[in-house]
Design a protein that fits this description.
The chain is α/β, with parallel strands linked by helices. The chain has eight helices and five strands. The chain starts with 14 loop residues before the first strand and ends with a helix.
């Protein structure tokens, strides 16, 4: 991820938008029998939530998707994780021009993804997702897209360099 400079000259915090498939993967990890204590999608989600040096962004549609998962999963642990996630996510109003710039990369059935890409465009956040529908917008260079495994690799490498 490219470092953004703040007006004070200090490097900006890493910024991310967390797609719902990251949450699904993490919460499925909770349901499986423990195999090994390696870093996985659940580790990633927890890190994104608790690391005060990371900023998370979202939009109203994404927050509604998160809420739908809380209702569907109906588990105390899942509810707590998603509550903490929604508390940390900074809600962004997306200007029409950002939506228009992202629109051509998605099919009509993926209309909600336009909002997620536009959120990244407006905030400079990296989208973490395993959803292939974001490949075109990422390959075009409009936004930066990381897979779950790429996010794990890059965030833990960043930590080991501190």
């Amino acid at each position: 991820m490219k470092k953004r400079e703040r007006s004070s000259g200090a490097a900006a915090s890493p910024r991310f938008v967390v797609d719902t498939n990251v949450i699904v993967s993490a919460l499925k990890t909770l349901q499986r029998k423990p195999r090994d204590a390696g870093i996985n999608s659940l580790s990633l989600l927890v890190r994104l939530i608790v690391d005060s040096g990371i900023e998370l962004f979202g939009n109203q549609i994404l927050l509604l998707e998160y809420q739908r998962f809380v209702e569907e999963l109906n588990s105390d642990v899942s509810t707590q994780i998603l509550k903490e996630l929604t508390v940390k996510v900074q809600l962004v109003e997306i200007p029409d021009d950002a939506l228009r710039r992202c629109l051509g990369f998605f099919s009509e059935r993926d209309a909600k993804d336009v909002f997620h890409a536009a959120t990244c465009l407006v905030t400079g956040a990296v989208l973490i997702t395993n959803d292939r529908d974001f490949d075109r917008v990422g390959e075009a260079g409009l936004i930066e897209v990381w897979s779950i495994s790429e996010a794990i690799r890059k965030l833990w490498v960043r930590e080991s360099r501190k």
